[in-house]
Fold this protein.
Amino acid sequence: AQSVTQLGSHVSVSEGALVLLRCNYSSSVPPYLFWYVQYPNQGLQLLLKYTSAATLVKGINGFEAEFKKSETSFHLTKPSAHMSDAAEYFCAVSDSGTGNQFYFGTGTSLTVIP
Amino acid sequence: DSGVTQTPKHLITATGQRVTLRCSPRSGDLSVYWYQQSLDQGLQFLIQYYNGEERAKGNILERFSAQQFPDLHSELNLSSLELGDSALYFCASSVGPGVPPYEQYFGPGTRLTVT
């Protein structure tokens, strides 16, 4: 069975500060990992994905994530937070099974303080 | 804009009723996924179709059913609605199964309120 755990349902950072959103995965096979962002009243938008190529993955809007197998982690970072980054962020794990089902974490709400 | 469309945007109905949610995938995508998002349950996978066939089932209640039509649009039918069914229902689409998995593109969602 595959699952992800997002530590911290709410994270607040000051504008210009480092953003760090945590995601740990559990998987019996090599995982494929994704980060999605959801802005208020909108659907989910793909930020970045790890598919076993480079362990450091760069995404849109200045976000990146590093796959660390030894720590079973895939934390999302951004060097300098912007007000427009305020949103809900979801980590997801998938497999190469029958339907490529995605298993989403419970989400982390990011607040950016001016 | 992800290219995935969902109708209606909002739906208000009474307990015991039946509703149908519609989804059109991105052009070229053959897989459609349905998710339910609620405050207490988070984002729950319901069901997936690939090229008209059911491919995977998640936490979908027996009162719910779905299908994918030859033109690849999909409908999610919710019947005998209960207050607890109030949620955001998302549709997502992808090219199809693959190794590595293709990303899923999400629609804007349908907000269902059961009164």
Summary: The two ends of chain B are 31 Å apart (CA to CA). The mean pLDDT of chain B is 93.
